[in-house]
Design a protein that fits this description.
six-stranded mixed β-sheet; 36% helix
Length: 192
C-alpha cells in the first residue's frame, strides 16, 4: 500500500469517527456454532462474547471434528462477522452527528460505508480477540491460546501464550472456561 493511500484511508477513518456517536451495551453470549465466511463455504466456530464497561472480549474456539476453514485462516472474517453480529443485535448502536449540509450532499452508500468503518474501528479499539485450539485439535497437542492483534493494514498477528497469562490480563478467570464435551458433541449438519 502506498504512503499516499495509507494517509488517505487514515484521514477518512479519522473524519468518520467524528461524524458518528457509537454506544456499546454490556452483553454476554456463547454462540455454537458461530458462522463466518470461509474459503469455500460458510465456516463455523464457538464464539464467546463478553462486553462490560466498553471492553469487549471475543473468545474464538476451533471446533473439534470440523473440516471447514480454520479460525486461524479466517480470523479476519470471524472478527468481521462478530462486528456484524453486534450490529444486528443492536449491541452496538450508532447515532449520526452530521451537519445539515452533510446529510443533504453525502450519498447514502457513502454514509453507510462510513458508518460501518466507524463501528468496525470502534469495536476493534475496544476488543481483545483470543483464539483457542482445544487439546487434540490443531498443531499443539495440549491445545493453544493466542491473542490476535490486527496491524495497520489489517493483517493479523498471533501472540501465543498460556491461558493463565491471558486470564490475568483480562481479569476474569471464567471468561476462558469451556465445556469441551459440548464442543465434542457439535456436528456439522449433513446435506440430505
Amino acid at each position: 500500500m502506498s504512503a499516499a493511500l495509507y494517509y488517505f484511508k487514515y484521514e477518512i477513518v479519522k473524519d468518520l469517527i467524528l461524524n458518528f456517536s457509537i454506544n456499546l451495551k454490556d452483553y454476554q453470549e456463547d454462540i455454537l456454532p458461530f458462522r463466518f465466511r470461509g474459503f469455500w463455504s460458510e465456516g463455523a466456530c464457538f464464539l464467546r462474547i463478553r462486553i462490560k464497561e466498553e471492553k469487549i472480549l471475543f473468545f474464538c474456539v476451533q471446533l473439534p471434528n470440523y473440516t471447514g476453514t480454520s479460525v486461524t485462516n479466517a480470523i479476519e472474517n470471524v472478527f468481521e462477522a462478530a462486528v456484524d453480529y453486534l450490529l444486528e443485535k443492536n449491541i452496538v448502536t450508532v447515532n449520526e452527528e452530521l451537519g445539515f449540509l452533510d446529510k443533504i450532499f453525502t450519498k447514502k452508500e457513502k454514509l453507510e460505508k462510513n458508518r460501518y468503518a466507524s463501528v468496525f474501528n470502534y469495536v476493534l479499539s475496544k476488543s481483545i480477540l483470543i483464539e483457542h485450539y482445544p487439546p487434540g485439535v490443531g498443531l499443539a497437542e495440549d491445545g493453544s491460546y493466542a491473542k490476535v492483534n490486527f496491524g495497520s493494514s489489517g493483517e493479523p498477528a498471533w501472540s501465543y501464550t498460556k491461558k493463565e497469562k491471558i486470564v490475568n490480563h483480562i481479569g476474569c478467570k471464567d471468561a476462558l472456561s469451556i465445556d469441551y464435551e459440548v464442543l465434542q458433541k457439535w456436528q456439522e449438519p449433513t446435506a440430505s
